[in-house]
Amino acid sequence: MKLLSLCLGLTLVWAHVEGHHEVVTSNFDLSKISGYWYTIFLASDEMERIEENGGFRIFLKHIQPLDNSSMLLKYHKKVNGQCTEFSIVVDYTEQDGVHSAIYDGYNRYRIIESVYGEYVICHTVNFKNEKITQMMELFGRERDLNQKIKTRFEEICQEYGIPKENILDLTKVGKCSSLCFFLPKFSCY
Ligand SMILES: *[C@@H]1O[C@H](CO)[C@@H](O)[C@H](O)[C@H]1NC(C)=O
Fold it and tell me: Is 13 a domain residue?
């Protein structure tokens, strides 16, 4: 009996670990996407939007689902060399998994895939001044991610017509660090 319950216990633990590493590509559970994130890769078909001083050179920090199916996204951004925090409320749309928000134009966000405890890949389409720009984001629960996930991200970018050279590795460039969160006046390099 003891052995049986031990086995059962192990199976449950295993099932839990398995579930944690499952790649989800639809019917996302937003409550599992909530929490703290780091922006690992940022890509676009219009580089000036994500380069220094670009409107989309923003670093996701936290996702909080709201009661009405909207989500509150907290970001860091460098303004005049200083780290500032700001939020965007993204609203649910009828289209499965698509959210929208007004930020530097009108945006539609779609989560492409996620392992909730590890990473999220998100596709953003921005409409501004009759111009359409796409952005692809890779967020990680840790400050960096393994090569397998990064390669997967590159493949997805390619599928969307964003070439590899348009992917910025934000783990290597100066960015708003977690210090900025604790010391809002801390000047980020
Ligand atoms: C959901 O609630 C937030 C915060 O109260 C609000 O900003 C947002 O507009 C709401 N979304 C919708 C679709 O009503």
Answer: no
| β-strand partners of 183 | none
Which domain CATH number covers 54? Answer: 2.40.128.20
Say how many Å lie between the CA of residue 8 and the centre of ligand 1. 44
- Does residue 89 line the site of ligand 1, with CB under 6 A? yes
Taking only the tens place, the pLDDT of each residue in 24-78 is 999 999 899 999 999 999 999 999 999 988 999 999 999 999 988 899 999 988 8
**Whole-model pTM?**
0.82
CA of 146 to the centre of ligand 1 (A): 36
Judge if the beta carbon of residue 67 lies within 6 A of ligand 1: no
Domain count, the chain: 1
Distances (CA, A) of 187 to 142, 167, 174, 177, 179: 22, 25, 11, 10, 9
